[in-house]
Amino acid sequence: MKLTLLVENNPKIESFYKLNLFTWLGLETTCVKSGTLALEHLTSHSDSVNLIIVRCRIGKEEAAKVIIDFLKLKSIDIPVIVIGPGEVPNVTCVANSLDLKLLIKKAAVALNITAKDMSAKVVADHFPIPIGYFNSIKRSVCSVYIQDPQMPQLYNLKIEKLKDFEANLISGLIQEGVNCLYVDKMDRLDFVNNVTSELISDLKADEISEDELITAVDKSVELLSKKLLTIGITEETIALSKKNMAIITANARKSTKLSKLLDRLLSNKTSYLYKHTQILTYVGIHIVHNIDWGNADQEEKISFIAFFHDIALENDLQCQISSMNELKRSKMTDVEKSLVERHAQIAAEYVTKFPHAPMGSDQIIRQHHGQLNGLGFSDHYGANISPMAMVFIVAEEFTKIILKQESGKMNREEMLRELREEFTTSRFLKIVEKLETLIL
Length: 440
Hints:
This protein is an alpha/beta fold. It has helices at 11-25, 35-45, 63-74, 100-110, 115-120, 169-175, 188-201, 210-231, 235-254, 258-267, 272-290, 296-308, 316-319, 324-329, 334-352, 361-366, 387-405, 412-422, 426-433, and strands at residues 3-7, 29-32, 49-55, 80-83, 92-94, 126-130, 144-147, 155-159, 180-184.
């Protein structure tokens, strides 16, 4: 059997690359930590390698160049995919190491694996998962089975869906010599996606580039939303929330221009939900910083609210609904419609259980669509809406205007005109004025 040679020194990235390449393309992967070690492997095993995936630079070593030069010198014809920023002439590149969809696509092309081949691939009823991956999760999104040692054709339920693992369960199985656990073939993609999200979420800022960090936080926020739905506010979800909030707020504060921040979000193909949260944080901090009652605590509060206000939503379509008419006309299921209608109330309930949440943040989240109780969307904003909720409502509407046009030069006057048509009272217009100094 031919193998894919992966040249990667980050064990987390190595881990989810191997799992995804096997799950989607059926590839068996062997990994080395440097270009030098890759040359040693290729010198004696080049005939057994069908694809090389290599990070552009590993430490100070130009690992990709080392390998490509070697292949040319030895006239060895093996396709190469280079991971990381910077183009390598005449070689397939994936700039963002966390763009798994693109990596899988490029690997399939390199190996002449078609979509038809992938769909026709025979998958066993019980899909094997190397047991080491269970050390990356605390619970499984699906039922997990173990092969009966006496009757290998039988698979017995070992771990229940969404149930926390018993202490030392996985380490005990490893000591017993268990190499794989199994999931139903229909659950394999959900399981693999969940493990991948956990591993990506665990990456530290100093392990990846700034652009890759944006992708990591996008995946991590999606993971957090699912965890909140299943386990609620716990030490686990609190820690994940704080980590993601800190990065989103730091991105907002260090970005000198809104357009540059937006370009980074677009170039890294982040979800609408994440773009919305990141831009909203940027705009909200600017307004609070420039309003007469604003201070550092209020900036922290607006960032906290921006992070949590849509945390209960599951996808981009839900996030883009902004009126009851849009909700009624949408093709979403009744369950999805109910979630969208109640999402502000659900998010506020999470926040009431979050330790040391900024005072009043749950109330503002309930009001962020103009309703006092967090249910549905209002066409009119009453006098009972709090000043911070008004700031948030303006910031969110401005964010929607930005994301509606996405790319191209921003026309400040046109954007502010649109806001003034939406918000006609003096209380709101005073807030709109603060966007005149926002650096686009």
